[in-house]
Fold:
Amino acid sequence: MICPACENKMTEMNVQDITVDVCVGGCGGIWFDGQELKKVDEPHEAVGRNLLEVAYDPNVVVEQSERRDCPHCSDIVMMRHFSSIKREVEVDECPSCSGFFLDRGELNTIREQYTTEEERSNAALDMFGEMFDEDLEDEQAASWQRVEASRKLANMFKFLMPSHYIPIKEKLGI
Ligand SMILES: [Zn+2]
Ligand SMILES: [Zn+2]
Structure:
């Protein structure tokens, strides 16, 4: 898979049973496949250091203002939005396959933003609630697409912050 930010060839990495693509030796970004994120139903305790310490090339300059093409789909441009309630971290999300791309360092930023478990848990709930409220105003069909995408984003959050639990199923009534 080619990195959507710097066009380096990405390296597959397994974190427990989840496969992510990491831009080792390039910009250091991380791609979370939408299908892989579906598997994140239980907390993953050991996500840790591999993803936090990706070897990257400091000479690679990433253009932050440009929209990026999805590395998985052939001709889909990704949407960019904030992943956290503090609005300090942006992710690129593919509207088609619901994969996510995180720039180098954003993973660390996400983790550093919330130092206690309570903060992490509240942040996750806030984020999810915010996305869910937005859904309620949409048409129903579009809404269900967003719910599915929200679940994946919430799963990514769970994956990155393994120590908390998001009661998604209760929220969605499934
Ligand atoms: Zn890259
Ligand atoms: Zn895609």
